[in-house]
Amino acid sequence: MVVLAIQFGLAKDVVTKDEKRLPEQARSFIKQYFASSYITSIKIESDQWQQKKYEVKFTDGVEIEFDNNGEWKEIDMRSRAVPSGIVPSYVSNYVTSNYNNQYVIQLEKDSRGIEVKLNNGLELKFDNRGNLREIDD
Predict the structure, then answer these.
(1) Most C-beta atoms within 10 A of its C-beta, which of 5, 13, 75, 98?
(2) pLDDT 10s digit of each residue in the chain, 137 long?
(3) How far apart are the first and last CA of the chain?
(4) Among the listed residues 41, 93, 97, 45, the one whose alpha carbon sits nearest the alpha carbon of residue 73
């Protein structure tokens, strides 16, 4: 228990606006898809194994979470559409075919697949092969 307490005590969060603190892949992603947005804060969380998670917030309310390598894990656009270049084609094709006039406002990916939230509140879950697993309304 003491070892765990010490490890958790060493994990520290940092809040900054300095984009240079982000991994290169995250900076490139922001530059490509969110160049006209302004960052209000970057929260850097370190766990006991020195793995980092980066939570980037923009002035327009958009939030993006990146992993230790700078790969996006979650994108929350609030009520606007996620840029089309980010949404996997199988998701775009499914939404276009089945939910006319709806669009993706949130993406979250993990080792099992990707979860999508549409502007009508519907949530779709796809596996890593692009197969629809679940629909939550």
Answers:
(1) 75
(2) 444 444 444 557 889 989 999 999 999 999 999 999 999 999 999 987 778 999 999 999 999 999 999 999 999 999 999 999 999 999 999 999 999 899 999 999 999 999 999 999 999 999 999 999 999 97
(3) 42
(4) 45
- How distant is the alpha carbon of residue 110 from its chain centre? 10
Say how many CA atoms lie within 13 Å of 102 toward its Cβ: 21
Q: What are phi and psi of 6, to 5 degrees?
A: -65, -45
* H/E run at residue 68: none
CA quadruple 34, 35, 36, 39: dihedral sign: positive
pTM for the model: 0.87
- Type and span of the H or E element at 15: strand 13-16
Can you read off the two tokens belonging to residue 110? 């993990």
